[in-house]
Design goal:
Order of helices and strands: HHEEEHEEEHEHEHEHEEEEHEHHEE
Distance between the termini: 89 Å
Structural class: alpha/beta
CATH superfamily of the largest domain: P-loop containing nucleotide triphosphate hydrolases
CATH topology of the largest domain: Rossmann fold
Largest sheet: 9 strands, mixed
CATH class of the largest domain: Alpha Beta
Low-confidence stretches: 21-28, 336-340
Number of helices: 10
């Protein structure tokens, strides 16, 4: 195959390329793909990423995953209402108002109405900037075009939620691998970038546990690799944590609470702070019965030894509790209610 240097806008082959660079012309002006120099990038004024939900859902593609019945759809609908209404998401996060498309593919109109009735304040007017649907074409059968058409029909598209991915992705023809899973979500990621909006897909997690909750997202790492942000709702013996990691968000571990009456998820605070607070309360409550050895506090609080030792040290240093013997603690000024000898580590 003969190569024509004129296709690149230069003459005389390699000598022409060298002459062009010697004349101060940049590679961006010489090749078919667009390039820019580091110096040019330094001078660019680039806007910060746009957030549909500040700190949690940025412009681009987000996966929201969790176990069945943990409340993913309640959270997704709360986010949709908050943006469409210009209210507060997750109880505390103010949202800029915009147009929202919520594809509730596992629901019907009756269930959607009941859930919105729970989530919205009594006697409030429901937002007309929230478009709802219970069916949409699959991704490979026109779904991308459907979303693009909706975005073009509203004045300020900000958020699209697809609940769930299983009912939007193409039917599986073979065992998934990284490339096939990446190919599933990359069109949505590209669409989000094209439209400058946030797209959230609701998904499930595997049954297998992992030290990193983000590794539990069902499917291969091709799915999480294609997404800009991954959020995982995870419940353990101490409550529910929303884990998050992404290209435009700080890594998060947020303690959450769910109100079964209102159907609303609420941010409690950083998981480490909230759990430390809960553990402090458990220790103080146990010591209401009188001085206790560490081994008894382990049984009363369910904490592991190392974590308990560290927290007891901090609480004693701050004056919340007092050390009354080797490995024994008490509330300040609280006598033993049973007037019994305190069992210490030395006993």
């Amino acid at each position: 195959m003969n190569f024509d240097w004129n296709d690149l806008g230069v003459e005389d082959g390699p000598e022409g390329v060298r002459a062009a660079f010697d004349a101060g012309l940049t590679a961006a002006k010489r090749f078919r793909f667009a390039t820019f120099t580091a110096a040019e990038l330094q001078r660019m004024e680039l806007p910060p990423p746009k957030f549909a939900i500040e700190g949690y859902v940025a412009e681009g593609l987000t996966i929201l995953a969790g176990k069945p019945k943990i409340g993913k759809s309640w959270m997704a609908l709360d986010l949709a209402l908050a943006v469409a209404y210009g209210g507060r998401a997750l109880g505390v996060i103010p949202c800029e108002q915009g147009d929202v498309l919520y594809a509730a593919l596992e629901d019907n109109q009756r269930r959607l109405k009941r859930r919105i009735h729970q989530l919205m304040p009594p006697d409030s007017e429901w937002p007309n900037r929230l478009a709802l649907c219970t069916s949409i074409r699959r991704l490979d059968a026109g779904g991308i075009e459907d979303i693009r058409e909706w975005a073009g029909s509203v004045c300020n598209p900000r958020l699209v939620i697809i609940d769930t991915l299983a009912l939007f992705r193409p039917p599986r023809q073979r065992e998934p691998n990284y490339d096939s899973d990446y190919a599933v979500l990359s069109p949505l990621q590209n669409l989000a970038a094209e439209l400058g909006i946030a797209i959230v897909v609701v998904h499930h997690v595997r049954k297998l546990e992992s030290d990193d909750p983000l590794d539990t997202v069902s499917g291969t790492t091709g799915l999480t690799g294609a997404a800009d942000t991954v959020l995982v709702l995870n419940r353990d013996g101490q409550g529910v944590i929303l884990y998050g990691r992404g290209r435009d968000i700080d890594e998060i571990e947020t303690a959450m609470s769910f109100d079964k009456v209102t159907g609303q998820w609420s941010v409690l605070g950083a998981a480490t702070d909230v759990r430390r607070s809960d553990q402090r309360k458990a220790i103080l409550q146990a010591l209401q019965e009188g001085p206790m050895a560490v081994s008894d506090l382990i049984a009363a609080t369910g904490m592991v030894r190392n974590s308990l030792d560290q927290l007891l040290y901090k609480m004693a240093k701050s004056g919340e509790i007092m050390r009354v013997g080797r490995g024994a603690y008490s509330l300040p000024g609280t006598p033993d209610k049973n007037d019994k000898k305190i069992r210490t580590e030395a006993d």
